[in-house]
Amino acid sequence: MLPTVILYKTIPADLHAHLEQHCDLTVVNSLRDVLHPDMESLLARVEGLIGVNEMVGPELLDRAPKLRVVSTISVGYDIFDVADLSRRGIMLMHTPDVLTETTADMIFMLILCAARRATEMIELVRKGQWTKDIGSEHFGTDVYGKKLGILGMGRIGRSVAKRAHAGFNMEILYHSRSVNEQVEKDFMAQRHSFDHVLAESDFVCVTLPLSDQTKKLIGSRELALMKSDAFLINGGRGAIIDEAALIEALQKNVIRGAGLDVYEQEPLALDSPLLSLPNVVTLPHIGSATHETRHAMARVAVENLLAALADRSPVRCVNPEVI
Ligand code: DGY
Fold first, then answer.
1. What's the domain range around 299?
2. Model pLDDT, residue 314
3. Are the beta carbons of 95 and 316 closer than 8 angstroms?
4. Are 236 and 207 in contact (CB under 8 A)?
5. Ligand 1 nearest-atom number relative to CA 237
6. Among 128, 135, 298, 306, whose Cα sits 20 to 30 Å from the Cα of 292?
7. Which of 68, 163, 165, 237 is catalytic?
């Protein structure tokens, strides 16, 4: 008998068809839909969930006694209570690696756009205000040869370092729990204390995952440590930065600017001061959002789900103790 699976995100047609071949598949718009009393029998037999960006909380888990696998189409899994899933014997699968280079590209785009004031310059052209040669009031900041501070030296941090070293001759400082000998050898990166990286870098780039340890890691104190002409770049998770403190720092020119792909609340509210500050580049959480990478992430999530349901020693499991 095919395992019962609920899909709560639209995935490419080829992968959808593949899932349909191997599972008894129910598609929902949102996991909220499966909490409806009509869905009780589906929840009673469901063994796998696949989707992204939705809480899988006790309300659902208590009603799904046969659930064995949750496959998220993301590398980040901060939205899950992993300890609770483990207690219930449910595997949580995720999609590292396939999005690394695409996300590093986006982070570099934020660095370049923030430094060269791309948002302001695009607006200026669009509004018909490009009526004479650009003068010093519109000049940006060099990236080439500057100091890049990377907070968190995981896969994405390493790929950002690779670009910075090979393409932009940047000096790389980093802070992470452990030494990364490879980045030190390959890109001449130097590991320093958290405060030193903040104080010395021209661009401070957050590539950390969100956890109890990293929540609001960067607040007023940390922003005040940064150079007044430095930029803060966030391609990790919004809650790592205290957004109110960042807004205040940007308003008071404590730092020169910011490039953000992630926010405390997403989607970002239209009345957020971040949208009216000229020195901020705001992207709508598009780190991995290319056709190729989103297809690859969905493919990996489908593979993860099917391997885990078939007990084929799944590899991208966040809580392997459950296996
Ligand atoms: C992830 O996979 O966690 C990303 O944030 C999605 O782009």
1. 4-97+292-322
2. 79
3. yes
4. yes
5. 5
6. 306
7. 237
Active-site annotation holder among 158, 165, 175, 285: 285
- Partnered with residue 260 across adjacent β-strands are 234, 282
Site residues for ligand 1, CB cut-off 6 Å = 74-76, 99, 287-288
Q: Which two tokens stand for residue 297?
A: 């992430």
pLDDT tens figures, 168-193: 999 999 999 999 999 999 999 999 99
Position 287 in a domain: no
226 plus 312 within the same structural domain: no
Residue 77 inside a domain? The answer is: yes
Is 291 catalytic? The answer is no
Our mutation pick for probing the ligand 1 site, out of 9, 71, 79, 103, counting the most ligand atoms within 8 A of Cβ, is 103
Answer yes or no: do 194 and 256 share one domain.
Answer: yes
Number of domain units in the chain = 2
pLDDT band with cut points at 50, 70 and 90 for residue 313: confident
Average pLDDT over every residue of 131-156: 97
Q: Assign residue 53 a region: left if phi > 0, alpha if psi is -120 to 50, beta otherwise? A: left
Between the CA of 265 and the centroid of ligand 1 the distance, in Å, is 15
The Å distance, Cα 252 to ligand 1 centre, comes to 31
315 — phi, psi (to 5°)?
-105, -25
Q: Say which CATH number the domain at 53 has.
A: 3.40.50.720
Q: Of the residues 40, 123, 181, 266, which is catalytic?
A: 266
Q: Is the pTM of this model over 0.70?
A: yes
Q: Are 15 and 59 in contact (CB under 8 A)?
A: no
Active site residue 295: no
User: By 3-state DSSP, what share of the chain in percent is helix, strand and coil, each rounded to 5?
Assistant: 40, 15, 45
Q: Is the pLDDT of residue 311 over 90?
A: no
